[in-house]
Amino acid sequence: MKLTSQRSTLRQVKADAVAVLIPENKSSFEKEIGNLRKYFKRRIDKIIEMEQFKGKKAEIVGFFTDGAIATPRILLVGMGEEQKLTLEQYRRSAAAAAKMAAEFHAKSLAILLPVGTGKGISDSQLGMALAEGTWLSQYVFDKYITTKEDKKDKVKELIIITDDASREKTMRKVLHETRIICEAACLARDLANAPPNEIYPESLAAIARRSAAAYGYRALVWDKPRIEQMKFGGLLAVNAGSNRPPRFIILEHNAAQKKFKTVVLVGKGVTFDAGGISIKAAGGMSEMKMDMSGAAAVIGTMEAAARLELPVHLVGLIPATENLLGGSAMKPGDIITHFGGKTSEVDNTDAEGRLILADALAYASTFKPAAVIDLATLTGACVVALGQHATGMMGTGDTVMADLKEAGEKTFERVWQLPLFEEYEKQIKSDIADVKNVGGRWAGAITAALFLKKFIGEYPWVHLDIAGTAILEESQPYAPKGGSGVGVRLLVEYLKSVKAE
Ligand code: BES
Ligand code: ZN
Ligand code: ZN
């Protein structure tokens, strides 16, 4: 998508459609409609009366301008009450406008930059929200659809217009940043949505390598012999049932910069999770191609951090494997020795994510990080607890968790903390190894996190269970069903708040 800003007025702007955001408060509503009356005369009153448009949230009316202004279509977008305006409302309104414009076969959409923003919303935040809503709402995974008629029309250009030169300059700057973030989020979506015969450990590593080469960050990929040499027992055990070899991907931005804090991101990269010998039910199993959404978020975030030149030493670690059931597959009852020497008893081969993350979390210590954040589509239990609207957050790093909470509110990739009370620990106690990989029926998201906690080093750690938020069963205002790309916007926002030492 092309993102531009223009110093222009509603009358002059050249686009296929133009959107005007209208609050429901009487005086503002009257003022906006008054403006439109200059061009549309009494027709505007007829239209809003006929459509019963009141400026409420989710209302949207489109009509033909018939030469009254340069743009052929205008969209009136209801914003709700002014005092309650949030960034998320701007994202959703832009998304609604873009969707309607696309239905009109518009290729370019202009949005008139509103004058009175919500409380505490800066112009750059506003510009970013409008562009994110537009861009992310137009995402479709259609690369395998070969018939033109089956491809949906999309808006290909957003033009934010204002008649104020300094606001236009602000837009230009923020749109550059927004492009990078949206491209990274859509890369994460593409990786998740791609079929498992396209994305498997080797191809995932190749994509990470390509991104690193394109944007100037470092990529190191371990093959199976190296993983064996490093004694990553969890990754090797999960991989044992698969014909495709595993990979361990190490990404690094600002590797040589001693002055920056080190933050390590760890992403679960199970490119297909059949469950292993503890095989999953057939219904909906194809969704498990997205069990590498944590890895996708890490690759997207690394790419964005490098392009935005964020002042942080950022490391991305991705253990990548399929979880299948070949003749040499890991079995319930197996005991694994992980990197660092701790052992785990496999009670259920479908609880594989924690086995591969254990190696990576133990290995993360070697970077002496100021914080480690892992992202994983780890448990169905987290989806039961929080559904599709909040990522489960657990960990030991209280400051990092507070910062992530704030970043989550801003980006609307919200996180919700679950407790790691020690009383839950006995559920994963093993009689024959250091820990058992499942903890029974209750509090499954928590016992999974407590398993991970056994393997962390001396660093503040946060675990994000994105099982519900990364894999959407239904569409959301600016995300179709399927891979949501969750984590990229959240982490970029969080990383912006990490200060140099
Ligand atoms: N990848 C799944 C978790 C998952 C489930 C992600 C639904 C997204 C949507 C994970 O590997 C898994 O299978 N977990 C098991 C753990 C159980 C065996 C303790 C689960 O949640 O059922
Ligand atoms: Zn599983
Ligand atoms: Zn899994």
Could you characterize the architecture of this molecule?
The chain is 37% helix and 20% strand. With 501 residues, it is an alpha/beta fold. The strands form four sheets. Strands 7, 8, 9, 10, 11, 14, 15, 16 and 18 form a nine-stranded mixed beta sheet that branches. Helix 12 (398-411) crosses helix 15. The longest helix has 29 residues, at 165-193. The protein is elongated. It starts with a strand and ends in a 5-residue tail after the last helix. Residues 273, 275, 323, 350, 352 line the site of one zinc ion.
Strand share of the residues? 15-25%
Percent helix among the residues? 25-40%
- Molecules bound to protein: ligand BES, zinc ion
User: How is the main sheet built?
Assistant: 9 strands, mixed
**Overall 3D form:** elongated
Number of helices: 15
Structure, briefly:
The protein is of the alpha/beta class and 501 residues long. It contains 15 helices and 20 strands. One zinc ion (ZN) is lined by residues 273, 275, 323, 350, 352.
List keywords for this structure.
501 residues, alpha/beta, 9-stranded mixed sheet, 6-stranded mixed sheet, 15 helices, elongated, binds ligand BES, binds zinc ion
